[in-house]
Amino acid sequence: MTDCPVTLLQNEIEIDKLISDFYIPLNPRMVLEIGSLYGGTLWKWIQSSERGTTIVSLDKIPDNHLHKLEDVMSARNLWATWADRAGVRLVKMTGNSNDYEVRSWVKTSAPFDFIFVDGGHDMQTVTNDWNLYYPMLREGGVIAFHDINVPDKNEHHIDVGHWWRECKKIGMFGDDVTEIIEKPNQNGIGVIRKGKIS
Length: 198
Known about the structure:
Elements: H1 12-26, E1 30-34, H2 40-47, E2 54-59, H3 69-76, H4 79-86, E3 89-94, H5 100-107, E4 112-117, H6 123-133, E5 137-146, H7 160-169, E6 177-180, E7 189-193
Parallel strand pairs: 1-2, 1-4, 2-3, 4-5
Antiparallel strand pairs: 5-7, 6-7
């Protein structure tokens, strides 16, 4: 584990396992993160990437009481420095991942080797994120979703867990699926590899 300079909203043990077991072995050169907020996981990708890697961060401006805008923007002001120090090319896009214009803009950077999805948590948004961005993942690439272990009924109205379980039930992800869950009550990360590495 490392000392993240901004708020990290994910379980660090789960994120670090995702990095050690999937991200580093994959050695991605094109990375997409949907939902960066303060940039905790973004910082992790930057620190774990080779020089010359391109990382695209896509997120909305926060519009709820859980995250103060000034705190989020203050954290985001650090991102360029992190990228410069690591020799990583950082591309920031502000907008809704489900918007056609945003999807079209992101597609200009595809195909991606690695995609991390932690954006909108309602059923429609997570379904759309899968339908819109999975096709932008190269064969052998990895896509990961946060919150796959959240119960169907929860106080925060997070639908990702329900979506994940329903998709697994019908075999939509194929056979190469891994769940990273530190403890039963943790939110968890679901990992899908697209096809086989050639």
